[in-house]
Amino acid sequence: MNSEKTKNKLIYFLALGSMCLALVLIMYNFFYKTVEVDVMKNIELVYTGENGSASVTVENNTEDLNQRIQEFMETVEYEVSPNSNLSNGDTIHIIATYDDELSMTYHYQPINTEKEFIVQGLNNRFESKDDIPENYLNEILTESENYITEHADEIFHLDPETASQEDVSLNNISQLYCAFLKSTQTSDRIISVYQLDYASKEQAVTIYYLVCVPNINDGNRVIRQDIYGETAYLSSEELQNLNIESYIHRVFGTQYSIEKIETSTNQDQNTEKQ
Prior knowledge:
By secondary structure, the chain is α+β, with helices and mostly antiparallel strands.
């Protein structure tokens, strides 16, 4: 009988001891143990610009179920050097800084706080319009016209003289001119000038409008949200002769080298004028 009681007590104290040990280990792991945190583990390099003129930002995509690690990682900031005029093959040095007090509070030991990367994957500019693939050019022109279609009403009402007119319809879109603008300062772009023929209750209205597609490079990608447009304010002489080329050189000639692009649309219209 006594041996049975002794056995039960032994089991009880062993279980109690195991529970206490487990609690101690848990407390140690959560509150006292130093944990290594790799601050470079989930970073993503996001490049802006093209080969020879790019910069980079560092994004950390850590999503840790441990809220403390997540909180700590949100304090990490990255400094990149060099970070301008980057080209493929360049070496960049990244230094991570973080909240020291939070690191000490949570017993975190950040590792890999400095690291070097090789720049790669940057797009290249085209040397001339002749290097632009035909399917890429066609997509650019399609998106340029789509921009006008989507903003047709807004374009019409930009002019104070027509802003109050109602029941407006865009009856015709004619491309008059297209060119590749190359620059050493900003991204290369393709611009198109259109003649927009509107009809409203009051009158027929013709508007000349320029659409610009920037960031033209061998990534062969049209970024729709970067497309923009503006009214083409031709001089009286340019308007009289419908000399769009003169207007383009007057507005853009000091900033860009300009290469006219012959498209099927403006080729047909040039033929009709002759």
